[in-house]
Amino acid sequence: MLSITGLSGLSGIILTERLPQSLVAYYTLSDLRDSTENARTLTNNAAVTFVAGKVGNTARFAAASSQYLSRSDTAFAISGDLSVSCWVKFASASDFKRIVSRFVQGTGGYTLATNPTNGVSFGCQGPGGDTALSSANLNINQWYHIVGTF
């Protein structure tokens, strides 16, 4: 299962070009739809709301809640090269919070998360998996473009 969990809201992007066919999914988070031809719609768990954002609508996650968006799909079980990218604006950066996560007990997975000690962490678990930690201090109420690559 892929989970997109909330911090303080994630920005949507208007697409002006056709997306590469190699993308597993692309979510603007202006709604639950996947913008690729794969049409992997997310499931809204715990009442994530959609509000006006900088460009169109955006998903708004309550800061101290367990709200998340998910999709159960084997296509997210990526065993080769992997990149996860998102724009985030933190309401709080004082504890560990998953931003994007796909983890299956016993087989591993990947997690892009806030890390109160180092800012942001990206981990891949499984054969040869590891975790990379940033050394950036994250400011609240500021937009960040975060990318994890393995």
Descriptive labels:
150 residues, mainly beta, 7-stranded antiparallel sheet, two-stranded antiparallel ribbon, globular, disordered N terminus
What does this protein look like?
The chain has 150 residues and is mainly beta. The protein has one domain. It has no helices and eleven strands. The strands form three sheets. Strands 2-5-1-7-8-9-10 form a seven-stranded antiparallel β-sheet, with no helix packed on it. Strand 8 and strand 9 form a beta hairpin. The chain is globular, with a radius of gyration of 15 Å. The N terminus is likely disordered.
Compact overview of the structure:
The protein is mainly beta and 150 residues long. It contains no helices and eleven strands.
Q: Helicity, in percent? A: under 10%
Number of domains: 1
Q: What average pLDDT do the residues reach?
A: 75
- Spatial extent as radius of gyration: 15 Å
What is the tally of beta strands?
Answer: 11
Encode the helix/strand succession as letters.
Answer: EEEEEEEEEEE
